[in-house]
Amino acid sequence: xxxxxxxxxxxxxxxxxxxxxxxxxxxxxxxxxxxxDDHFGGAAISxxxxxGVDARLSRYSYLVSLFPQRIIGELGLDIALARRRxxxxxxxxxxTETGLLIDGGDPRASRESFTRVGAExxxxxxxxxxxxxxxxxxxxxxxxxxxxxxxxxxxxxxGDEQLWNDFIEKPLGDVITSxxxxxxxxxxxxxxxxIGTFTSLDxxxxxxxxxxxxxxIGNGTGDWDIPLGGMGSVTRELERAAREAGAVLVSGAExxxxxxxxxxxxxxxxxxxVFTGQRILANVSPWVLQGLLPTxxxxxxxxxxxxxxxxxxxxxxxxxxKVNLLLNxxxxxxxxxxxxEAAFGGTFHIxxxxxxxxxxxxxxxxxxxxxxxxxxxxxxxxxxxxxxxDELVAAxxxxxxxxxxxxxxxxxxEENNDRVRAELQAAVLASLNSVLAEPIEDLLLTDADGxxxxxxxxxxxxxxxxxxxxxxxxxxxxxxxxxxxxxxRNSAAERWGVATGHxxxxxxxxxxxxxxxxxxxxxxxxxxxxxxxLANDELNSDELNSDESKNQELENQH
Length: 558
Prior knowledge:
This protein has 19 helices and 18 strands. By secondary structure, it is of the alpha/beta class.
């Protein structure tokens, strides 16, 4: 490769790295993306998970909410998202022959379902609760593609002191338990504060609040949609946009070191190479970035780490088990009043009463695997059968993605990973079977080797496959989408939430201030900060050249 000097070198070719590359290249900047794998996309990919079976699963990330239409439009992306009619189905753990079905297309049926599970009083309360979260979404989501507002500015945008205090200042459990009375309904709401986040709903750290906020503000509605064609369709469009704009995308390039003068050292094909960038964009976790920087320099806390910008980073901890399954058909329910197509048409919640969630947290905190394990299920193929071959569609095969909560990375080690994976998979299947009318194992298709079509990914598996530290799907603890009033806003990187404490190095992945989820926000905001700083560099250079020219003229006159 002839050119090794770029305006920006991006470390990591996940969807955020591709987003940044597309924006920078479209702005006329030279940009290179270095990806250690043989393909791009990171966690936002589709993959054939089962040998000889033509089903392309969204193997890691699977739903889209936070990806702004603004980015889709500005980059000219051909991304189609499908809205699901059903919001959720939640079997009652105390009586699994009944459950709560929330039907977005039929409010009357939803109200009747609340009555059947003895939660009639919570129907209107839940409507009011989500009306308030929509108010938060309408106020805060429009800011995510702009420089960060301050806490005071964000509070003024919300314009409702009670609403702000309930969701931003006090533990999430307070507002849930004060406004909702049924334990099943409380748990249904609370799970949005616990996805990938290991915490109690009453914890004063407010980790659950921040997780909850990002789950309810997406595109001003909080809806979570199915990417048609699978998650890989999102990455393919971003890769196309980056390449067509002129970005250089290099796969099989494992970055081994960064330097303060913009040098990026990487291994490719057994050889060591070096690219140099005016700016380095790190689409890796802050913990990984800290390890790439020269020994003895300050950390990269702040945007996605712990403490102030430049402070040491705390190793993040994920807290989930991900299980993909391929079935010959949807399973039958113990609740015969609900069709499987409806129950699995939205988010299927299992063993997620509010009390069960808190019990599960305490069990895992003590080093155990929760029993029953709180789980959530998504069926991509019901909404979008295009991820399956024609033969599988004709046979009525279906995919299931299960996300198990409160299984923190501390439970897994290099030595016990295989054993714990098997135990967690068994716990997931047991949780599913507790609400089904037939064993889920009997419905599994088999692959070319006759093995059941099921795969489980522990936090350690995610770290190995994706370099995702601690299996944390957000790369670090989530932060508010605003700056505290006393936080610095002097540099472009600080204003855009991508600062690391190193002048040339920006975060551009999930660990950036607003980078969690499949959103492109980490990439967009890092690109905006780079463009702002490069423009300032050019302006300062022009002014310096002008001053030098004037000085030379004066010298010539004398």
